[in-house]
Specification:
The structure is a homodimer. Chain A has about 325 residues and is of the alpha/beta class. Helix content of chain A is about 45%, strand content about 15%. In chain A, the strands form two sheets. In chain A, strands 2-1-3-4-5-11 form a six-stranded parallel sheet, with helices on both faces. The first copy, chain A, has a six-stranded mixed sheet with strand order 7-6-8-9-10-12, with helices on both faces. Chains A and B meet through helix 4, helix 5, strand 2, helix 6 and helix 11 of A and helix 4, helix 5, strand 2, helix 6 and helix 11 of B. Chain A binds a DNA duplex (30 and 30 nucleotides) through helix 2 and helix 4.
Chain lengths: ~325, ~325
DNA sequence: GGCGTTTCGTATACCGTTATACGTCAATCA
DNA sequence: TGATTGACGTATAACGGTATACGAAACGCC
């Protein structure tokens, strides 16, 4: 069952069928009708692989850091809502939060002749990204590279989000505010955690307070010991801002287990406003990045880039603090 | 940069390079060394698309019902651990819990010349699955079709899991035990929810109790109203077994909000043992399906099927009840 | 009516691999 | 020694589409 089968059935040439498939120029209504009837009758479906060897595949690759991260579904749904309408398909690659793994997946997607790539929270360095982006239209979400010229970036304003948290904690009367940041051994200043850290430090300084950053291993590693140590320490802070709900939710639970009252003894604010944070029993204050919107914008940027735009676009979305019980009792 | 570039650089024929790439017969050590040196030097990567036109793509498709479902990551990781070693790549398709969407994705994966497919919790009917499975090696996870001959199935013993829950609730002294099942308008008895329902009904009958099944809309639709109505009803049951944590977690939170004590006034047991259930503040008893193991078994089955096995294999894994605070106070 | 100009359809080179058929040469065998 | 066998490389026809070049009508214009 190939394009040749269809051509024979419709009594036309192979090229004619191809033209109909591609909406190419030079097809009469009569021809189109004949061909479409045959396609329908035979249930023919063109091979993406063969198609990709010369033309477009109409398939986009989406790379997610980690499948268990609760923030990613919203971004994915945002992307999908846009690409669906435009008639593009999506293939997802899951990179276990390791840069090597991600590079492998990107290459795989290039090998599969995808038309474009959206990388969500990639841990790959700017230089490497740049090299890949020259080979395939690319949009990066959740990775700050505002000067990149070969790809677009869509980000939440992580600096501002952290400042909002510090200000809210300050207004709630807290002065002893610590931050839980991801221990980034690769020192990628472009990642979201360091950005939030900068915002935190700046806001603390602006309020005349001394910043105190505590680093924990990344989320794909166990880190309960570190959290427990923090809570048991004699100089336990009165408020903790966590770079992600992935840390804030376990911290909140651990505090509860250890008999520490939240927020009376310890206020906690997370980041991402994941579904778990919103559960009444958890009630974790958190920063909402509006992942859906970021996904939509990323997809739009990618489509326009595939459409020919060459000059890079860098967007920053202002986040929103969702106040809940872990910040303000009630 | 094609196979021809490499051939020219190494001073050999295109066929020779192809042979080296495929580990085919008739390659001397000297030739192999020359070719591999050129590949390394040029950084050549074969095109999967072109490769797929005649040979294998070494890429497997994994279809997930819904990206936000917290049970799926464990299955995915299980699959990955096996396929990684075997040198296969994975592409993920996300089907928004709609059969039409899933069919579309399956076709897309066939179009992309994937070597095999793993469908996780697919909602597609047995007949349709059968039609696709004839075109491409297929393994189905979380969908009971024990008589299917064209594809393999890997399932948790949902019937037994439900019975375990009823027995545990019975032993805890409960008699008024209801079940929250998914409202399956398509009436797919093969899905997991109806299987659990059967196990529940059987166990209730065995204990001499009257079953009481309450149906709620599927998880991609809002269903807070139904849950709230259940809790507010004058004949509110004393224990509820939920077909999934996706319902049990909101129910638990709602009960707490409405001042209903868990488990004193209402015992709740979920299914899937998702990460949220294990949080101390939630402490939801749940049935653990061991998704990781199911994923591993699915991948192994698929590889052996790709390897030539034609007779279908149907595996049933015994689940395990994880007792927590929502079932037994302490 | 002769001459460009569209419009429409066909023939076919090409995309980057794989796999088969085949040729060459040295080693082995009767 | 001539024939057979294996080992190793090469040439090349697929694979299933796309896109370009091109031919044949139909059309518009003076």
């Amino acid at each position: 069952m190939t394009i040749r089968t269809v051509a024979a059935d419709a009594g036309v040439s192979v090229a004619a069928v191809s033209k109909v498939l591609r909406n190419a120029y030079g097809v009469s209504d009569g021809l189109r009708a004949k061909v479409e009837a045959s396609i329908e009758k035979l249930g023919y479906r063109p091979s993406v692989a063969a198609r990709g060897m010369r033309g477009q595949t109409f398939t986009l690759g989406v790379l997610l850091v980690e499948i268990a991260n609760p923030f990613l579904p919203s971004v994915y749904h945002g992307i999908e809502s846009v690409t669906d309408e435009a008639g593009y398909k999506i293939m997802v690659g899951v990179g276990a939060a390791r840069a090597g793994r991600e590079a492998q997946l990107i290459e795989q997607m290039i090998d599969n002749r995808m038309d474009g790539l959206i990388l969500v929270a990639s841990q790959i360095s700017g230089d490497t990204l740049d090299r890949y982006a020259r080979q395939i239209p690319t949009v990066v979400v959740g990775h700050h590279e505002p000067t990149a010229s070969s790809f677009d970036t869509i980000n939440s304003d992580d600096f501002e989000g952290a400042r909002m948290v510090v200000r809210a904690l300050y207004e709630a009367g807290h002065r002893d505010i610590a931050m839980l940041a991801m221990d980034d051994k690769h020192d990628h200043a472009a990642d979201v955690s360091p950005q939030r850290e900068k915002g935190y430090v700046a806001a603390m300084a602006a309020a005349g307070l001394t910043p105190r950053v505590i680093r924990v291993p990344p989320s794909n590693q166990p880190r309960e010991a570190e959290l427990r140590a923090l809570l048991a320490a004699p100089d336990r802070p009165r408020a903790v801002f966590c770079w992600s709900d992935l840390d804030a939710v376990p911290l909140l639970n651990l505090a509860h287990q250890m008999g520490i009252r939240v927020p009376e003894d310890l206020a906690i604010v997370g980041y991402d406003d994941s579904p778990v944070a919103a559960l009444p029993l958890i009630s974790l204050a958190s920063v909402d990045q509006d992942g859906r919107r970021m996904g939509r914008m990323a997809a739009q940027a990618l489509l326009s880039r595939i459409g020919g735009r060459a000059v890079a676009e860098h967007r920053l979305i202002t986040p929103r603090l969702v106040v809940r019980g872990s910040l303000q009792g009630g």
